[in-house]
Design brief:
Length: 243
């Protein structure tokens, strides 16, 4: 299922099942059937149709939202091999950990709020009538070392835009991981009909600003003294890229 697809189900119980899975990230089918109080035969039928239509998938015995976001890609930088792929629900802890490690530098406030929201909801990917949220991850071995995140409201007047955050933990910077993550995120945004992506960082995060400018982003606006970091007022630099 692509994020650009309209969510239509054709049956109220089918909609309830999808919304329950989407809200919880990954669920045990038996628990979902019991909590939703749908008869077992009907539940199995509706899940089968949701799988057929590419809305749900079964991963390790648990149901989760299915999103068509491409395949895993392998890269080599000097002696480092890393992979970039669509995130899965079981990446949640690794993504939150990576974002919070980057956020500890106090230079990426927006990303910190993303980690708090994902951790609180315990659901990584979202696609409903109000919002869409997608992640790609960079992994070394089985560990998440970087992420790119896109979040978009489903409001008609804003549906052409998406907020993007991207980051790599300090030990793995300088290997091109951030550039590959950014490219993958922008490719996905373009293929899902988004026309513009935006990102905001403190003016003290000069590396992030230079990174985005080096990939064609432009400064749209500056909000003076928007952040207060360690007792110092810092401007917010609002950046964007037209796709």
């Amino acid at each position: 299922m692509k994020f650009a697809d309209e969510i239509e189900f054709g049956h109220e119980d089918r909609k309830r099942i999808y919304e329950y899975v989407e809200r919880h990230g990954a669920v045990d089918p038996d628990d979902a059937q019991e909590r939703l109080r749908i008869d077992p035969g009907g539940f199995r039928h509706h899940v089968a149709i949701l799988k057929r239509d590419g809305r749900l998938e079964d991963r390790n015995g648990r149901l989760q939202v299915a999103i068509d976001a491409g395949a895993e890609e392998e890269y080599q930088s000097d002696d480092l091999e890393f992979h970039i792929r669509p995130a899965r629900q079981d990446d949640l802890a690794g993504i939150v950990g990576a974002i919070r490690q980057v956020a500890e530098e106090r230079t990426y406030i927006v990303a910190e709020s993303v980690a708090d929201e994902v951790d609180h909801q315990n659901a990584l990917l979202r696609h409903n009538e109000l919002e869409s949220r997608m992640f790609f991850v960079a992994t070394v071995g089985d560990e998440v070392v970087g992420w790119v995140h896109l979040h978009a409201p489903e409001l008609e007047k804003l549906s052409h835009t998406a907020e993007l955050t991207v980051g790599v933990i300090e030990e793995y910077r300088g290997n091109g991981i951030g550039s590959h993550l950014l490219s993958r995120g922008l490719e996905w945004a373009g293929s899902n009909a988004y026309e513009k992506v935006y990102n905001s960082v403190p003016s003290s995060n000069e590396d992030a600003i230079a990174f985005l400018e080096g990939h064609g982003w432009e400064v749209e606006a500056i909000r003076e003294d928007h952040y207060k970091l360690e007792g110092e007022y810092v401007d917010e630099v609002m950046m964007a890229l037209e796709l």
